[in-house]
Amino acid sequence: MSSVIDIENISKVYRRSVVDFEYGKLKLRFKERVVHALKNLSFNVEDGEVFGLLGPNGAGKSTLIKILMTIHYPTTGSARIYGKPYWNVGVKRKIGFLPENPYFYDYLTGDEFLDFYGRLYEMPEEKIEKRIPEVLKLVGLDNFDIEKLPLKGYSKGMIQRIGLAQAILSDPSLIILDEPLSGLDPLGRKELRDVILKLKEQGKTIFFSSHILQDVETICDRVAILYQGELLNVGKMTDLLSTDITGYEVQVNTYHKELIQTLEEKAEKALVHEGEVFLFFPAGIDINAILRQISETDEKAQIISVSPRRETLEDYFIRKIKMGE
Ligand SMILES: Nc1ncnc2c1ncn2[C@@H]1O[C@H](COP(=O)(O)OP(=O)(O)OP(=O)(O)O)[C@@H](O)[C@H]1O
Ligand SMILES: [Mg+2]
Asked: Whole-prediction pTM value?
């Protein structure tokens, strides 16, 4: 596989002046605030990958994306996209981009907005006309009654969708999306995840930031984890996550009070609701002994499910960030 994005030792320092004004003593001072938003980042994104850029609020995800899009400049370091410097104008033709919290023209309808962007991409008129219904369908906007509706009448999720439609309009081979799943309901997130997978099937490379870890886990080939501007890790999900069993989830249906009490004492977490008992046991517990105890204590008890739980991206993320591991 060849590299599409090569990030080479990028650091970004934001400096801003802050005026410190005290009215009582009439003091006026200027202070400089320095934020090290990115600290010497290096990694690459390969052709045809779905690559997730993860990190908590303020980690530097948007800063990195803005640098790749030449909206901001790195303080040191550089990046190459398709082997060319990231600021190369020609290379921009191969990129579709959805910014974080996009601000679009309120008074254009979806069709007019896409037509406008098609012209910015210098697409031929006939191609724009053909492509608009295709992308509207792909992002699921054809399910909404948006004919003649200006963008100011769009919901947040609809704006995300039209933003994505704009990003893929010119059929770019690299699609960079800053928080594409934010503002979407669970169904909308599932639909957009499917769109991303469809784009991958078409051979596109997708680089996107997110803090919705379950979504990332299901669609990304690789992820990079940023924390306070530093790259904590980069790799395949299977390499990052431990395959060790972290515990067992058990559902059992029983009304046997003593049994329920014993299980509650042994479990790390327990939830009891009208004869349905949900339990979480830590790894290392003798789960077979627990199951035996259930059937020996209450013959009527029904063991509905026993599922071993493995580390999720969320567990990993919390382990890495909160525990400073
Ligand atoms: N234009 C700017 N001027 C000064 N500081 C900035 C600027 N843009 C971002 N920062 C700072 O840089 C750091 C990284 O911000 P950034 O927006 O890249 O984070 P993020 O990972 O995208 O966060 P979020 O998940 O909230 O979108 C933050 O501390 C932020 O305050
Ligand atoms: Mg951001």
From this structure: 0.83
